[in-house]
Design brief:
By secondary structure, this protein is an alpha/beta fold. The chain has three domains: 80 residues, Rossmann fold, CATH 3.40.50.720; 157 residues, NAD(P)-binding Rossmann-like Domain (Rossmann fold, 3-Layer(aba) Sandwich), CATH 3.40.50; 81 residues, Erythronate-4-phosphate dehydrogenase, dimerisation domain (Ribosomal Protein S8, Chain: A, domain 1, 2-Layer Sandwich). Helix 10 links the parallel strand 8 and strand 9.
């Protein structure tokens, strides 16, 4: 079923509800239903009213880290394409990573592997004794700032509108703000003002008020994609398996074994002199294709734009993580760069 359209009537007789991120699970959906377990095959839980579920004795599970590789790799592809469009070599930039959890940590490793300097901010980790972290203000002073935090409205570390007008004012002129976390960790109004003034640039996979995206905001984004950073086949299968295992534990049954993913391992051949990172990121993540599709939504009405945004997510084509790829290289220098990103390579024969 279409996730946003699932109603109380649809789930009334269900015992278990398995969803992704589009379905809001709360009292209005589940009260008086038979549902006793809810699983979301995603990292985040901001679409679940977990307090209400706990009070009702309804078991629930998410899938933390399931698509962390996918989201980090896709974010790298977004940043790479944005830097190309802005005429800036990524190697000459410094990236501030806000949120050094499953995704942020992996993005940090990918960037460091290709020689990019990074700074990481993560107050929860800092409070637990993690070293090597910086303040949010320090991270915001980088040329590129990439957000990888959950959406939290309460607690000691709220992230709703984490980056608003005061935080954006600290960012250097012409810097790039990247968001592949949750749309509402950025103030859409503040970001639009900065884009209208042409002081900042932005690359967004997630959007304030999603799926009802501002046309004015969309029209001014350097790279725009439809909340698909974590949508690799590998990430989806990981999430499904994690929720399945959690359900089996809740139900007291033995989980079955999976011996094969049933997925093909894709290959790519590089031409002599071809930039290996550009070619590999385009093949594996195809960000430009969905950026073009997002640009076509600008002239639509707000309701049409929302419907098309959801369609792009629903019909997203199959994508594999770097680890599934083999790239045939014309020279050893190409192989070395791709191996640092976790992409297997083979040398082409003469």
């Amino acid at each position: 079923m279409e996730g946003r359209l699932i109603s109380a009537e649809d789930v009334n007789d269900a015992d278990v509800l398995i969803i992704r991120t589009a379905t809001k699970v709360d009292r209005s959906l589940l009260e008086n239903s038979n549902v006793r377990f809810v699983g979301t095959t995603s990292i985040g839980t901001d679409h679940l009213d977990t307090d209400w579920l706990d009070r009702q004795g309804i078991g629930w599970s998410n899938a933390p880290g399931c698509n962390a590789d996918s989201a980090a790799q896709y974010t790298l592809a977004m940043i790479w394409l944005a830097c190309q469009r802005l005429g800036r070599p990524l190697a000459e930039q410094r990236v501030g990573i806000v949120g050094r959890g499953n995704v942020g940590f992996r993005l940090e490793r990918l960037l460091n592997a290709i020689g990019v300097e990074t700074l990481a901010n993560d107050p929860p980790l800092a409070d637990r004794g993690e070293t090597g972290l910086v303040s949010l203000d320090e991270a915001l002073e980088c040329n590129i700032v990439s957000l990888h935090v959950p959406l939290e409205t309460q607690g000691p570390y709220p992230t709703l509108n984490l980056v608003g007008a005061p935080q954006m004012a600290r960012m250097p002129d012409n810097s790039l703000l990247v968001n592949a976390a949750r749309g509402d960790v950025i103030s859409g109004e503040a970001l639009l003002n900065e884009l209208l003034n042409r002081r900042l640039h932005a690359a967004l996979d997630v959007w304030p008020g999603e799926p009802f995206i501002s046309a004015d905001l969309l029209a001014r984004i350097v790279v725009a994609t439809p909340h698909v950073a974590g949508y690799s086949e590998d990430g989806k299968r990981n999430g499904t398996r994690m929720v399945y295992d959690a359900f089996c534990q809740w139900a007291g049954i033995e989980p079955g074994q999976v011996t094969s993913t049933g997925l093909d391992n894709p290959e790519l051949a590089l031409a002599p002199g071809e930039d290996p990172i550009t070619a590999a990121l385009e093949a594996a993540c195809f960000v430009a294709r969905h950026d073009e599709a997002m640009a076509s939504l600008v002239p639509l009405s707000i309701d049409q734009r929302a419907a098309e945004f959801d369609r792009l997510r629903r019909e997203y084509p199959s994508r594999r993580d770097f680890q599934a790829w083999t790239v045939r290289c014309a020279d050893a220098s190409q192989s070395g760069i791709l191996n640092k990103l976790g992409i297997a390579t083979e040398q082409m024969s003469d």
